[in-house]
Every structure is written in C-alpha cells, then in structure tokens.
Amino acid sequence: MDELGVAVLGFGVGRSHMNAYRQIPGVRLVVLCDVNEERLAQARQEFDGIETTSDMEAAVSRDDVHVVSVCTPDHLHYEHCLATLAHGKHILCEKPMTVSEPHAWDLVQRVKEADVRFAVGNVNRFVPQFAAIHQFVEEGRLGELFFVESDYIHDMRNVYERTPWRKDPVNPQNAWYGGGVHPMDLVRWVAGDVAEITLYANKCASAPEFPLPDTYISILKFANGCLGKVWETSAIRRVPGHVVNFNAYGAEGTMLTNTLEMEAKVWLNWGVEGLADAQTLPFRRTIGHPVLDELTHFVDCIRSGATPLVDALEGAKTVATLAAGLRSLESGKPETVNAGP
Ligand SMILES: NC(=O)c1ccc[n+]([C@@H]2O[C@H](COP(=O)([O-])OP(=O)(O)OC[C@H]3O[C@@H](n4cnc5c(N)ncnc54)[C@H](O)[C@@H]3O)[C@@H](O)[C@H]2O)c1
Fold first, then answer.
1. Distances (CA, A) of 222 to 177, 193, 231
2. Longest dimension (CA), the chain
3. Could you give the residue ranges of the DSSP H alpha helices within 192-311?
4. Cα 233 to averaged position of ligand 1 atoms, centre (Å)
C-alpha cells in the first residue's frame, strides 16, 4: 500500500499525534504547521529536522500530504477542516469537532461531498476499560440500560499556563465543549442519541481571569428512555488532576470504570439472594491518552475505506447535544437535542 504523508496543524497535543504517526508503518510525517516559531524550532529538533511552516494553506495543499491532523485551538477547527477538505485530504480533527452546531452539521455534509475519511479525536473510546463497557452493552450482557453517567474532572491550572488560548478573553475555551465533549461522547456511545438535556453551570475555582463557567452538570434523557448524567469541571483542586469516570447500569448488570484504575468492576446477574462480589477485569496500562491506538485505527480506516469510530456524524451529534445543553442554560428549561441540521 502506498505511503501516507501526514501534516499536523498545531504542536501542542499535535506532538503526541506526531509521536504516534511515526510508529505506524507506511506513514510518513511530512510537515508541521504552527504559528509559534519557538514551537516549530523545538519540533525540528525533536523530529529529525521535519519540515515546518506557519502557512496552513501551504501545509494542507501539498501533493505529498494525504492526511491532516487538526490540533489547533477549538475555535479554529472548523476553519482548518474547511481548508483541508478543499484539498480532499483525510482529517483527524481534535475534539471538540467544532464549537458551533451549524458548523458541525456543515462539516458532516462537506465530508460526505469530499468522500474522505474524517475522525474526531474523542480518544476516550480507545481507553480499554471504556471500550469494555461498550462491548458489554453491545453484547447485551448488562441488559437494558436504564442509567449511564460520565464525569470529566480536570485540575486545569497548569494547563491554562501551558496553553494560554484557553483563557483568552476574546476566544476562551468553553469548558462544556472542550472538556464536556469527552463524557458526552462516552455516554452517547453506549446509550445512543440524547433526546433532551437540562444543564446547570457555575464558576468558582479555576483561574480568576478565566471568563466563563468552569463547572457544568447535565441531566440527560436518551431517545431510548435511558437516563444519564454528565459532569464536567475544570475547577477541581486535585492531584492527579485529570480523571474520567464512566459507569453504566443495566437491568442485568452494572459496570464501573475510571481512568485512575486500569480495570473495570462488573456485577452481572445479581439476584436478591447471593449478592456476588464484583468481578474485576484487568486491562493493560496505557500511558496518557491512547493516541497511538486512535491513530492506528484512523489509518486503518483510510486504507480500508471503513468508517472511523467517531466519524463526522458522531462528532456532530455530540456537538448538537452540548449545544442543546447551552440553550438549556439560557432558558432554564430542558431543551430538545436537534437530530440534524
Ligand atoms: N484528545 C484530547 O484528549 C486532547 C488533549 C489536549 C488537547 N486537545 C485538543 O487539541 C487542541 C489543541 O490543544 P492543545 O492543548 O494542544 O493546545 P496548545 O496551545 O498546546 O497547542 C495548540 C497549538 O496550535 C498553534 N496554533 C494556534 N493558531 C494556529 C494557527 N492559526 N495555525 C497553526 N497553528 C496554530 C499554537 O501556536 C499552539 O502551538 C484543542 O482543540 C484541544 O481541545 C485534545
């Protein structure tokens, strides 16, 4: 199979994309684009003199680039995906796919027209114990789900220092999109489309200059009748600061997981008598996010023509759910989630 050339936009999390791509056979890192010259110089040192540019259009239009990882700040994803799609390249767009629902639906249509593979970086689907929940649900081993919950808990203080765009007064990162996208994607993965959402938010403990709420809690009603809860906070004082919890409760069993423990606890078919202890499923330890698994899957999809696990439609549905949450915050009422543009 022909070699796939890759361009990466943004050398923050883009650096872990580059580290992953260079471990995937038949993939060649071609060019990094960033507007920060210091980061470009650092990248040339770390990646054997890789070509660098600050001209995004020049990077994504090259004939030897077939795949683009969009790893720029959230509010630039739409613009950078449009520019890349115009050249017919495959895209791995970091999460959230966009920070606007109309932009998300527009990308779904444009990806279809361009006939390229498009994946969103909802990397938690590649965390083994979370994938196990999905597998147990798919196999019917938990029975009919009646409740799912997921939390994204992050002490962001040092992240704000490293990535000042997040607290930029003009385009700050909306933590409901930027952090809430992870747990919302997980609950949608196992319980399906959300029909209705109620959202509350406050701001307490994150950087004082951060201009938006830093804690969000939502109640979800899924189209299939399952209920759910998603909590996002960027404000917590806690080390290690980054934890994702993901739990699923069905008529036949319960499964509890989180990113601190590389295992899942499962209770299956417990009756009134003989309440059994949890079974523990151990998993291989991953260091940080499983980006290598995510990008290996994406490259496999490009080669086989298969649909990525989090394709444009999945990404857009999650954005639509988050957007309905923000409408609920405004209206103070439950809001319906749009099923399409
Ligand atoms: N999947 C995950 O778990 C995960 C983890 C971290 C970040 N992210 C996402 O990755 C994206 C980047 O976040 P980050 O933490 O890496 O931030 P970062 O600030 O470390 O990196 C972003 C880089 O983009 C560059 N940039 C800004 N504008 C640009 C432009 N117009 N053209 C080219 N480069 C430009 C910046 O100079 C910076 O180097 C965000 O969307 C974030 O939500 C995802």
1. 19, 6, 16
2. 67
3. 291-304
4. 20
Q: What count of residues does the chain have?
A: 341
Instruction: Give the pLDDT confidence of 143-199 residue by residue, as tens digits.
Output: 999 999 999 999 988 898 899 999 988 889 999 999 999 999 999 999 999 999 999
- The fold of the 4-123+291-310 domain, in CATH, is Rossmann fold (3.40.50)
124 Cα distance to chain centroid? 7
**Closest ligand 1 atom to 122 CA:** 1
Percentage of the chain beyond pLDDT 70 is 96
The domain spans of the chain are 4-123+291-310, 125-287+319-336
pLDDT mean over 280-293: 83
**Class of the CATH-defined domain 125-287+319-336:** alpha beta
102/341 Cα distance (integer angstroms):
7
Q: How far is the CA of 260 from the centre of ligand 1 (A)?
A: 25
Query: In this structure, which long-range contacts are made by residues 20-25, counting pairs with CB atoms below 8 Å and at least 24 apart in sequence?
Result: 20/291, 20/292, 20/294, 20/295, 20/296, 21/69, 21/295, 22/47, 23/292, 24/292, 24/295, 24/296, 24/299
